[in-house]
Design goal:
Helix content is 58%, strand content 10%. It is of the alpha/beta class and 338 residues long. It folds into three domains: 2-138, P-loop containing nucleotide triphosphate hydrolases (Rossmann fold, 3-Layer(aba) Sandwich), CATH 3.40.50; 144-208, Orthogonal Bundle (Helicase, Ruva Protein, domain 3), CATH 1.10.8.60; 211-336, Zinc Finger, Delta Prime, domain 3 (Up-down Bundle).
Length: 338
């Protein structure tokens, strides 16, 4: 049984994905989940379009008849080599179908399941974590030092260099989704051509767009309870085509930073050290500290619940997404000032 970290997952992939027979990859960062799935699958099969070695099943097929998974997992490739069986969109309703199959499975094929924002203690992650020969990887959105490492590594791999302040600027203006971050970095790399040293002007031209800066402005208006600024910035972002759900997730990650700091303070830690560990942009550090006094753990918890419910409403109820987001943001901003 294995609860994978980013490092142990990389080791698993580099070793040819041989130490585990089944892996669940889940998290709010859809881009990182997908990137991790591709890495693991390609450790087994070079060409993921090969229908004999790379097979897709749906959760519905498995729930309807577990033998569909069993047959594919135990089948031999006509051309030889290991196979990978992939299932996208898994959730806790799949636990009942897998609870007997997964512990008994001892085939050669790698079973790869991907899911959205499950909780660590949910039934599906718990099943994979406690089952011998299975592993679970939780994908958290890149932020802080992890996002800076992603920027540095991606640029280095492409033969580019950038000063620390340029890397910090790029990281501050990337989104919370791994695929979107990769896309922005690739755009910058293409823009540079044969030039290797990336200047601040280069970074600003490609990555520091007004939309990213507006999202940052929106988030601090939200946590600061500035309803007029929030309303104005939100209208501008919607007019530019910003996704309502991406804004909900950005707000969730922003408030999570306050939750982390408040939790450390409650445990007796230093507020200064806790804020420093977030690696905030230097222009936002004082503003973050000022807004910290507006929040406590209970208020943050209620705000996070509102954001989660708003995302569910956007996806399931058919209500206008922009209206749903505007309403919950105003509600949270008002709560900040109570």
């Amino acid at each position: 049984m294995s609860k994978l970290t980013a490092d142990s997952f990389e080791a698993f992939v580099k070793g040819g994905a041989k130490t585990l027979r089944a892996v669940l990859i889940y998290g709010q960062d859809d881009g990182l989940v997908e990137e991790s799935r591709i890495k693991a699958a390609r450790a087994v099969v070079d060409d993921l379009k090969d229908p004999f070695r790379a097979v897709w099943l749906t959760p519905a097929q498995i729930k309807e008849d577990i033998s569909a998974l069993s047959a594919e997992a135990n089948a031999l490739s006509l051309m030889g080599g290991r196979r990978v069986i992939m299932v996208r969109g898994a959730d806790n309703t799949l636990t009942a179908a897998l609870k007997d199959f997964l512990p008994a499975y001892d085939g050669d094929a790698l079973l790869l399941f991907t899911a959205g924002a499950l909780k660590t203690k949910d039934s599906l992650p718990a099943l994979f974590e406690k089952t011998a020969g299975a592993g679970v990887l939780a994908c958290y959105a890149d932020e802080g030092a992890a996002l800076k490492r992603l920027v540095w590594q991606t640029l280095t791999d492409a033969g580019k260099t950038a000063a620390p302040d340029v890397i910090e600027f790029i990281a501050e203006n990337l989104g919370a989704d791994r695929l979107m971050s990769r896309s922005e970095l690739n755009k910058l790399i293409t823009y540079m051509g044969n030039e290797t040293a990336i200047s601040m002007d280069d970074a600003t031209a490609c990555v520091g767009d007004a939309s990213a800066l507006s999202v940052d402005q929106l988030l601090y208006a939200l946590s600061g309870g500035s309803q007029a600024e929030l309303h104005q910035t939100l209208d501008r972002l919607f007019a530019e085509g910003e996704s309502p759900i991406s804004l909900l997730r950005a707000a969730s990650m922003h408030l999570k930073r306050f939750h982390i700091v408040l939790g450390k303070i409650e445990d007796g830690g230093s507020a200064e050290e806790a804020v420093k560990a977030l690696f905030l942009h230097f222009k936002r550090v004082n503003q973050f500290k000022e807004q910290l006094c507006l929040w406590n753990l209970a208020k943050i918890g209620r705000a996070m619940d509102l954001l989660t419910q708003a995302e569910q409403d956007c996806k399931k109820t058919g209500r206008p997404q922009q209206l749903t987001v505007a309403r919950v943001f105003m509600q949270i901003a008002a709560q900040a000032r109570k």
